[in-house]
Amino acid sequence: MQLMWFPLVKSTLDYLESIPEVNARYNIGILGNLPGGDKNKKSTIEIDWDNESGAADIVNTVGEVVLYLLIKNRADEIDMMQAYQEQYEMQNLILEKTKLLHDYILRNLKIAVKISAAGVAPLGKLTRPYYSNQLVIVFEWKK
User: Fold this and answer.
1) Which of 35, 53, 74, 135 makes the best surface tag, with the fewest CB within 10 Å?
2) Strands 26-30 and 43-53
3) What angle do CA 129, 132, 136 make, to 5 degrees?
């Protein structure tokens, strides 16, 4: 038996850090352990995960893990639409470059993976100047 949640979390972390447009504006880490990071970057992306299915099988050659990218950006503008535009653009940039993550996982973890976006959801209440949501990413893997 082999669990894949941690290698997929680590790969996603490396992937986000490798995108210059993301890394230039966001401190990136796992939920609850985001390092102090660059004080000039006021926004964060934190990675959280859900249960891994297929882990109870004796010979688990397939499985599924759901990751949550908690995107919290600070926007001091009065126009809230600018903050939502920033989140929308960041979500699409992350999804647009998902092929890089797929190739990284195949090359480094030696597993085939189907990566899909299950959706976007708000994160709690709006607390200005922070605007937060989570991008839900599903990893279906196969050895």
Assistant:
1) 35
2) parallel
3) 170
What is the average per-residue pLDDT within 111-130? 82
Q: What is the pLDDT of residues 25-43, one digit of tens each?
A: 889 999 887 656 667 777 8
Supply the pLDDT for residue 57. Answer: 59
The structure tokens listed for 66 are 């759901």
Parent domain of 130: 5-142
Query: What does 51-86 look like in DSSP terms, one character per residue?
Result: EEETTTSTT--EEEEEEEEEEEEE---S-HHHHHHH
67, 47 contact by CB (below 8 A):
yes
Q: Encoding tokens for residue 83?
A: 């903050």
At residue 80, the pLDDT reads: 76
**Count: domains in the chain:** 1
Task: Give the residue from 77, 73, 57, 55 showing the smallest Cα distance to 65.
Answer: 55
Say what the pTM is: 0.86
